[in-house]
Write a structure and sequence with these properties.
seven-stranded mixed beta sheet, Severin, 17 strands, 3 domains, elongated, Actin depolymerizing protein, alpha/beta, actin filament binding, ten-stranded mixed beta sheet
């Protein structure tokens, strides 16, 4: 009997869990069962051979190519793998990101982590690997796209059977805003369709099914207006319905507030918080914590020891025969020495996520910290900067 037979309800992924702990589990066997000896996604003649941006979505344990024209579009119920290959002299450098939506399933998240390791092996183990969380994407990840669109929903799991719901009124609200620190990056983020989601600094697109409304906050930018117009154009290609654009400064704009349940609201200003790193907060506070740990089995027993606490970390502190975990507060770096053992290499993400769970005792949001791994001799510019 196939190892996945009889499964009907996938568990929603808890971002606080460690996906690498799933390797060797039933999920690991299911992934292997659904994989050929070589992964077709990596064998298209381009991966590892040409620079570019490549995106795949995890669908029923398979790695499925994401359309190039939809680059930057993600669903919160899915997991994705993003490969950025770029020229470094006469060679190629690689960054692999596995992006986990806030409502992705345990199966999808585990498959994304497993396949990321597989892709790194296909690229001869030289890639920088990144775990990306929807709520706290790294700036390296955001910098790959001119715009980001995060929508609700996602691919239906192969083991989920959802009964169709009765038809209901469509009410979708999209928030369009500029990223505060990544130049020219526009975010399109689906938000709760309520008047309390409105913010006078941004543009909102309300799809009511029979009509599309655009609400332009009084302090929004021309870039946000232009992006909203593009979003509306894409939406109306599939269905020909009326569109009305209203500025917050127009008295008629109140109709949108009413449609979103704000008939009784008496708001003089509209200000809704942005999620995670899409907010205007800075990372300065997070950079206070600097700790360096060493993962080593040189003694025959695996050990994880604190090497530096609060001091500046330099390249000379890193030893080729071991793996080091470098906590800079806003990011958790893992440096893999070129002579590290297979045992050490196989445990890097498991150890990193265990460390993050320990941080949660004092920092409840620690599970959202970006985690990245670099390999000796192939360090990314961001990692090199963290050492400076």
């Amino acid at each position: 009997m196939p190892p996945h037979e009889g499964l009907v309800h996938p568990k929603e992924y808890d971002i606080k869990d460690s996906n690498v702990e799933l390797i060797g589990s039933d999920l690991d066997h299911r992934v292997k069962y659904n994989s050929a000896a070589t992964e077709p996604a990596w064998n298209n003649g381009q991966i590892g051979q040409e620079p570019g941006l490549y995106i795949w979505r995890i669908e029923n344990f398979e790695v499925v190519a994401w359309p190039k024209e939809r680059a930057g579009e993600f669903y919160d119920g899915d997991s994705y793998i993003v490969l950025h290959s770029y020229k470094v002299g006469d060679k190629l450098g690689h960054d692999i990101f596995f992006w986990l939506g806030s409502k992705t399933t345990q199966d999808e998240a585990g498959t994304a982590a497993y396949k990321t390791v597989e892709l790194d092996e296909f690229l001869h183990g030289t890639a920088t690997q990144h775990r990306e969380i929807q709520q706290e994407p790294s700036e390296e990840f955001l910098g790959l796209f001119r715009h980001i669109a995060i929508r609700s929903g996602g691919v239906q799991s192969g083991f989920t059977h959802v009964e169709p719901e009765a038809p209901k009124e469509v009410l979708t609200l999209l928030r369009v805003f500029k990223h505060p620190r990544v130049a020219r990056l526009i975010i399109v983020h689906e938000v709760e369709p309520t008047w309390e989601s409105l913010d006078e600094n941004d543009v909102f697109v309300l799809d009511k099914g029979d009509k599309i409304w655009v609400w332009q906050g009084k302090n929004c930018s021309p870039m946000e207006k232009a992006k909203a117009a593009q979003v509306v154009n894409d939406m109306t290609l599939a269905k020909h319905i009326d569109v009305e654009v209203l500025s917050q400064l127009e008295s008629r704009s109140r109709v949108i507030v009413d449609l979103l349940g704000g008939k009784e609201a008496d708001a003089a200003t509209f200000q809704a918080p942005r999620p995670g790193r899409f907010s205007k907060q800075t990372d300065d506070a997070g950079d206070v914590r600097r700790k360096l740990f060493k993962l080593s089995d040189a003694s025959g027993t695996l050990s994880f020891d604190l090497v530096k606490d609060g001091q500046q970390v330099n390249q000379s502190d890193l030893v080729a025969s071991d793996i080091f975990l470098y906590d800079v507060g806003s990011r958790l770096w893992v440096w893999q020495g070129s002579e590290a053992s297979q045992r050490e290499k196989g445990l890097w993400l498991k150890v990193a996520q265990h460390y993050v769970r320990q941080l949660q005792n004092d920092l409840s949001e620690a599970h959202l910290i970006p985690i990245s791994k670099v390999v000796e001799g192939y360090e990314s510019p961001a990692f090199t900067k963290a050492l400076a």
